[in-house]
Specification:
Layout: E1 2-10, H1 15-24, E2 29-33, H2 53-58, E3 63-70, H3 74-90, E4 102-108, H4 109-114, E5 123-125, E6 129-133, E7 145-149, H5 161-173, E8 179-182, H6 188-195, E9 201-205, H7 208-220, E10 227-231, E11 242-248, H8 251-261, E12 265-277, H9 281-290, E13 294-301, E14 304-310
Parallel strand pairs: 6-7, 8-9, 8-11, 9-10, 11-12
Antiparallel strand pairs: 1-3, 1-4, 2-3, 5-6, 12-14, 13-14
Helix pairs in contact: 5-6, 8-9
């Protein structure tokens, strides 16, 4: 099968919005190529010797968001993008989205399925987590907890700052009890929590493909008895209470979710949230305070920040 490959040039801050636009238009998958996400081979003590330096040298300076569409849909999608991209650019007074230029190419299905994998190598997050794609080898060191992951085309590998911040905060604050992963994507956060000892994890995503990918990753890590992955829309249909919740989603959704989530958190329960672009940091901070949480920690990396918050104990 032939696919049409569309590439939009943008920035780190604009990549998620561009990817979301392409998915709304029916992309079979998206890939964000951001030089800032690639490990530095010269950075000591982080096992970057596994990184092929040529990939870093060849990576484009701007951020590229690639998307793949069935060839018969290309005309419709191009027409939509030739309206949407200029509209985004006209509204972008601060140039946060960059060039927003569009390139078009064709690609065979087998190339589409595999060409992105060259950019995904094993890497560490936090003190003990190692994220390892299923097609790579890794020699574990004492204390390593290995997350085996095959993310598919659009659901997260852990290289993005928002996912790394979440895993670091889970590693620091999770101790015991039920955990709720809201918007699980590839399942990486749920898997990290289970490897840290969580025996009862409920992970949801509104996207059926994400649910499928997450279930497969849970199986690959031998954690199907600990992690239940289902299709779900935020708090709709959720039952019971949880000792820990994590959400790596958009800042406006976190603001909307903060207060109603407290009904599902046990007294003293933790809420780790990420996916917050710096410009919306204050909105999330204020929403957490207004909902009655105590903010335990804030971390930032690149254009993103994350919070660890706690519901009052009584």
């Amino acid at each position: 099968m032939e696919y049409t490959e569309l590439t939009v040039s943008t920035t780190t801050g604009g990549a998620d919005a561009v990817s979301a636009l392409l998915m709304r238009l029916g992309a079979a998958g998206t890939q964000i190529i951001d030089k800032n996400d690639l490990p530095d081979p010269d950075k000591p003590g982080r096992n970057w010797e596994l990184m092929d330096r040529a990939l870093l040298d060849e990576a484009p300076d701007d951020v590229r968001v690639k998307a793949w569409f069935a060839a018969e849909d290309a005309g419709r999608v191009l027409e939509a993008l030739r309206l949407e991209l200029p509209r985004m650019k006209a509204q972008d007074a601060e140039h946060a989205f960059g060039a927003l230029t569009l390139d078009v190419d064709s690609i065979r299905e087998e190339d589409w399925a595999n060409n992105w994998k060259q950019y995904f190598k094993p890497f560490r997050i936090g003190e003990h987590m190692v994220v390892k794609p299923t097609w790579e080898d890794w020699t574990a060191e004492p204390g390593d907890r290995i997350i085996e992951i095959d993310p598919g085309m659009a659901f997260g590998t852990g290289t993005h700052e928002t996912t790394a911040l979440c895993i670091e905060l889970i590693e620091r604050y999770y101790r015991e009890g039920r955990l709720f992963d809201i918007g699980t994507g590839s399942g990486i956060l749920a898997i990290a929590a289970a490897l840290l000892g969580a025996k009862d994890v409920y992970a949801i995503d509104i996207d059926e493909d994400a649910v499928r990918v997450a279930k497969e990753n849970v199986r690959l890590n031998g954690l199907s008895d600990r992690i239940d992955v289902e299709k779900g829309d935020l708090l709709k249909g959720v039952k019971g209470t949880y000792d820990f919740a994590v959400a790596n989603i958009l800042a406006p959704v976190i603001c909307m979710l903060a207060k109603p989530l407290t009904a599902y958190l046990a007294p003293g329960g933790y809420f780790v949230c990420s996916g917050i672009i710096r410009e919306m940091r204050d909105d999330v901070f204020n929403a957490l305070n207004a909902a009655g949480y105590t903010i335990l920690e804030e971390r930032a990396r690149g254009d993103w920040c994350a919070f660890a918050a706690q519901k009052p104990k009584d």
